[in-house]
């Protein structure tokens, strides 16, 4: 979902931040909380001294939280839901955005990258489509299973979501080696 559309579905709240940062941070409402009204998912930021910087960080955190909490098609009306081209077990073809961050089975994206929430969401959508079987999702996404799990490990709630679904299906949870 484009950020401009997402922002229209959100409620913003601004408060004073506590802690170090001087008079500006402690006397001005720089802390930001953003709530996606349809889902109730929140993003928060207060570590920057500027409200505008905290707004950007809070929106990024909201998008990451939405990537974990909501599957892509859940937000769309039936006529806009993706069914994607099917070919054997390859499923939906990865998006151009996804393929721009993958090469030779590896994923190269930073958690701070503005596209990270969309990449994370696409990975979780692919896992959901194959009943949380990491190897099948990795084939669909044209990356290794290890790379897929590492991507989820970059945002702890995503790895927790994978493991919650694996355990619910009687499978062993995944972990990443650091």
List the helices and strands and how they pair.
Elements: H1 3-8, E1 10-15, H2 22-27, E2 31-36, E3 41-45, H3 51-69, H4 96-100, E4 102-103, E5 106-107, H5 116-129, H6 134-141, H7 145-153, H8 156-168
Antiparallel strand pairs: 1-2, 2-3, 4-5
Helix pairs in contact: 3-5, 5-6, 6-7
Q: What does the radius of gyration come to? A: 18 Å
- Number of domains as seen in the coordinates: 2
What about the largest sheet?
3 strands, antiparallel
The chain-level structural class is alpha+beta
Helix content: 40-55%
Number of helical segments? 8
User: What is the H-and-E element order?
Assistant: HEHEEHHEEHHHH
- Overall shape: it is elongated
Characterize the quaternary organization of these chains.
single chain
Give the low-pLDDT segments: 75-88
Give the strand tally.
5
Give the distance, in angstroms, between the N- and C-terminal Cα atoms: 32 Å
For the biggest β-sheet, the strand order reads: 1-2-3
The amount of beta strand, in percent, is 5-15%
Overall mean confidence score, pLDDT? 86
